[in-house]
Amino acid sequence: GQNIDQPTEMTATEGAIVQINCTYQTSGFNGLFWYQQHAGEAPTFLSYNVLDGLEEKGRFSSFLSRSKGYSYLLLKELQMKDSASYLCAVMDSNYQLIWGAGTKLIIKP
Amino acid sequence: ETGVTQTPRHLVMGMTNKKSLKCEQHLGHNAMYWYKQSAKKPLELMFVYNFKEQTENNSVPSRFSPECPNSSHLFLHLHTLQPEDSALYLCASSPEPGQGYNEQFFGPGTRLTVL
Lengths: 109, 115
Description:
The structure holds two protein chains of two kinds.
Chain A: E1 3-5, E2 9-13, E3 18-25, E4 32-37, E5 44-49, E6 53-57, E7 60-65, E8 70-75, E9 84-91, E10 97-99, E11 103-108
Chain B: E1 4-7, E2 10-13, E3 18-25, E4 31-37, E5 44-50, E6 53-57, E7 64-70, E8 73-79, E9 87-94, E10 105-106, E11 110-114
Parallel strand pairs in B: 2-11
Antiparallel strand pairs in B: 1-3, 3-8, 4-5, 4-9, 5-6, 7-8, 9-10, 9-11
């Protein structure tokens, strides 16, 4: 079966760095997405990785290793507004997104 | 209006009621999706429409009935639901189906409670 694993909840301090991991087992691979979802709001796109390596976008970076079935989302200089759930999703061989359950990130002052 | 809109934002219904959820996208996209989001569970893909044609139905019970009259509008008709159907129902759209980089844009969702 297809499976996406990510931690249920993480806590970090304002101004610090946090890394949210995602491991996957899917039927084929056509890219990995990270989305951010604030409570009661729509998920919004953060990043897309299809090749191995690190993609940097401001305070957020996303890394992919296809051979290991592994990705992480790195958030730097954490702000209170970064408190949200972070969803990892993999596009399989049928171009359908397989979603993880999300990681709830709590930022403390 | 921009992006993806959904109405209503909140809905409470009894198990014998019939109601409909509406989604509209103003992005010129060709694919639209219905998802179910339950607490602490992955997003569950329910239906996919590509160019107004339904291409996916992930074993969704018949008490959920989708309708896509055109590429901008998507409905989810609900009847004789069960309490376990209470969840957040998200609509999404994407530019072109069948491509790797196919970012999905989500609406704010309808919070459904079945009594």
